[in-house]
Amino acid sequence: MTKPEEILRQYWGYDQFRGLQSNIVSSALEGNDTLGLMPTGGGKSICFQVPGMAKEDITIVISPLIALMIDQVENLQKRGIKAIAIYTGMTYREIDVALDNCVYGNTKFLYVSPERLTSTLFRERVKKMNVSFLVVDEAHCISQWGHDFRPSYLKIKELKDFLKQKTPVLALTATANKLVQKDIVEQLELENPQVFKQSFYRENLGYLVFHEQNKEQRLAQILTKAKGTSIVYVNTRKKTMDISNYLKSKGFSADYYHGGLNQQTRAKKQQEWINDKTRVMVSTNAFGMGIDKPDVRVVVHLDIPQSPEAYFQEAGRAGRDGKRAYATILYQESDKLDLLNMHELSFPEIDQIRKVYNALGNYFQLAIGSGEGESFVFNIGEFGTRYNMKPIIIYNSLKLLEANEYLSLSEAIYHPTTVKALASAKDLYEYQVKNKSFDLVLRVLMRNHPGIFDSYKKIDITSLAKETQKSTKEIDEILTKLTKLELIDYVPSHDSPLLTFLAPRVNEKTIRLSKETYKDRKDITLNQINTMIAYCETKHICRSRILLSYFDESDFKNCGICDVCIENKRTTLNNADFEQISELIKQKLSSGKFTLKDLVYNSPFDEQKTIKVIRFLLDNSIIKYNSNGLLGLN
What we know:
Elements: H1 4-12, H2 21-29, E1 34-37, H3 44-54, E2 58-62, H4 66-78, E3 83-86, H5 92-104, E4 109-112, H6 120-126, E5 131-136, H7 156-159, E6 169-173, H8 178-187, E7 194-197, E8 205-211, H9 215-225, E9 229-233, H10 237-249, E10 254-257, H11 263-274, E11 280-283, E12 296-301, H12 308-315, E13 325-331, H13 333-345, H14 350-363, E14 375-377, H15 380-387, H16 391-403, E15 407-409, E16 418-421, H17 425-434, H18 436-448, E17 457-458, H19 461-468, H20 472-484, E18 488-491, E19 498-501, H21 519-537, H22 543-550, H23 563-570, H24 575-589, H25 596-601, H26 607-619, E20 623-625, E21 631-633
Parallel strand pairs: 1-6, 1-7, 2-4, 2-5, 3-4, 5-6, 8-13, 9-11, 9-12, 10-11, 12-13
Antiparallel strand pairs: 14-19, 15-19, 16-17, 16-18, 20-21
Helix pairs in contact: 2-3, 5-6, 13-21, 14-16, 17-18, 18-19, 19-20, 24-26
């Protein structure tokens, strides 16, 4: 077995692991069930990709994020590593071929969305695979106490029964408190797991909250002061465009990004931001996942995130190079009401959910008892217009139906045009000879894509049309006809969300939502929202400590760089006053212990200034109270 360090150097170009990567890699290679908790940007993928390359057999990676799966597969392929992704939106035949390549080919990594795990095709084929590791990415999704609970993750432990041999499980997440960690271990049935947790503390990241009535004006001030690449998060697609246009009018190099844009546009905008052609990206939470740009200097939220987990991930995209960076929320009193209203909209009444489900069946012309496993391109705006329903109610109804395993809704992803030969080379050649009008297209197709006899290959319709001197419409018609003749399988590109019925259509009156996915989730998310509101409204607790305590970390002093720490240290105090008062207090306490009243009343300085310095020294554990209520040096 090649040493992990050699693999890291050969394929990724790094001389050494960082943080807990080495510990997690070693634990996995020793055959242990392993749980790794690493903050955003900690390099989770290295933790399973390196051990996967160290073993001879295939590694199965379960991930809920299709775009991220595709991105990781492409990155592995660029490194000369054979990897495949299987997800909602692929045809049965595409999945069949991909699984065959996993069983009989030399595929090293199989990425699969959790919804695919229960299909008979997948389960039967996985029985034939030799699996080195079962990797569960975004492992917090298995816990109803987490911020992104997905019931399909509960099926993962069943997959272990279908594997040929006992396989180590490696679970990874960037956001999990102790309750969620315990749930991950229990739900995945991890045996004596090795648990590695990297502190979420970011000493270079200053968390700031500004109470502002004119958020746009303050945003411009922040971006003027904080030079460098920035991300601005908002909660609606329209707002991404509005804020981007506002920033452009103020002279900033800005662009907008959201999930409703087509793949080519999203990729272009993302690349221009990565290459510093665009300085500020205004986006919904669709932006940033899987992007590791180290020099982001500021992340600004114009709207409050719905959970500490979401905020921690998004804010954590700043300052990955270790240099000073800031995560800022611009807050106003009305934001609280907006967030609570959004929470109510996230849990539509059961009658409304049933109405959406019934309309879907009619929209796709599915009879009761039919539709299981069928996928449809879904335009939520068009559907809402036809049935006079608000998109937000439709979307949240679909997510609750998904949580109860009636259907699933994929994110909008780009599926490129692909082709695979179904007939043999000999049969295709004979067809060419007999059908001259197809000869040139087939000849060019096979010459440029010799691998089409083994697997689906991406093709460029425009290039094929140019080389054969035909129109793209003619090429589409030829490939469609060849598909009908079952000589090839031609899958045109698409770039829309896909809605898949996980069970046969039922009468909407029989729809039932479990307590865990409705009432319990509603209570949990309300608690998360209230935590974020409290975070924004507090003026006396270090913001870094608030976030760390949410993730069960308490052994930290105040950060000294958040707005609360700065306010505590400097309000009505200049640096000279602070240093003088601080030194006087420490000198006095070096000779004994005193009450707070003694320190304040005997100080030659202003009473409020003295109290503020004492509070700072206490918060930073420089001084402390003893059991008798006296202050002394720590």
